[in-house]
Amino acid sequence: MSANIDLKDIKKKAIKGGVLTISSRLLTIVIQISSIIVLSRLLSPTDFGLIAMVTAITAFMGIFRDMGLSTAVIQKKDLEYKQINTLFWLNTGIGVFLTLLTIALSPFIASFYNHPELQPVVMLLAITFVIASIGAQHAALLQRELNLKPKVIADIVGAAITLLTSIGMAYLGYGFWSLAWGTVIGAIATTCLYFRGSSFTPSKPKIVEGTRDLINFGLNVTLFEILNYFHRNLDNILIGRVWGPLILGLYSRAYQLMMLPISSLREPINAIALPVLSRLQDDPDSYKAYYKNIATLLAFLSMPLMAFLVVNAENIIYLALGKGWSGVVPIFVLLGISGFIQAVASLRGLVLLSLGLSKKYVIWGIVNTLCVSVAFILGVKWGAEGIAISYAIVNYAILYPSLWYFFKGTPLSPIDFFIPILVPVVSSIMAALLSFNIMLNFIVNSILLHTIISAFVFFIILILVIIMLPGGLKTILGFKKLAKVIKT
Description:
mainly alpha; disordered N terminus; 83% helix; 488 residues; 0% strand; globular; 21 helices
């Protein structure tokens, strides 16, 4: 369990893991897109809104499920079996407690939204706390050791089972229950596969030396997640409370579509970046080079995609959701403004976590939560669109202050954030504006064909703009290396 791995070994494992996770994420994207397309045609906006009401609350309870212990395991330089075993039992105990607590609170949650039918759904979803807690340390160890093949298989199979269960039950007319049961069955499958893929076998529970440091680190991560919860879920709570399940259903669909490309690109890269950055924390030059490379890669993957989706929002929403979802379009466009920078900006947190600066992480969580919460409270007056534009404004307003705070005292500076993303920012915006104006002159009866042509035009303009920008051609020629995620 020692973290004393040489740079060549890190590089080899990270390249292999990077290619694996990014490739496997393509399968996950297919599953998620299939979920959006099929379930949006089998279920109503109200069905999605009711589940969004529940998950907005259970997401808060879920913060305590792991208590930051998985992150602590990944970050720690040296780790012993007995420490992992202690954390496994601690995770399991927390999961059982949260399941029972959520079941006890289910009547109050249903009463809060004035929808009694939500109580049994909350009770069912509460089971996922104990299910996920049991597999948390197995998943963390696989990520720490960059042994990602078993974890990837578990995640993909779990997602597929979730989708198939939800589709089957939705087709049979179970409504929002299909989403709840899909989540539970998928969680069971994922946890079982984590157990099978990990070499860790639990033994009798016992408190051992060194556990306190892991718990303290985890508590700071948990405190940040508690604060982070409010700006990740306060929007859903406010919309559900003020505007009801229909508007929340539209908002939740828009948010899911916006987050799909972000999470699909960010999560596999972060899965590699955190353990690698943690190993490089004593080598500032390698640390800085690695960060800049993953920032460049993530920017080139996420920014053009988000720009294209925003300027083609009407067609994308129709193709993805079908008729009756036009109300999603303006919400999606406004959320996409935040999504444009969100994937790359999320790398800030990895810097503090990889360097063990969890207390500093918490302090920023307080500031960030206050800013975003105020924005949501002000914006909810104008409905889902008001929430979305408020979120965009506050995200860009706090970007530079957050970089200054996060990078102070680390091998990085704010300029190390802006330089890697300069070319993708300019080229993505130019490609979006030019392709949008060009496509206004195209009259194509087929929405699918119009979208395909728009994508082709966007891509050609994007490449041409990149080539014309300083350093752009060099970036394109080196993209194969960047795609491996890991050049130091």
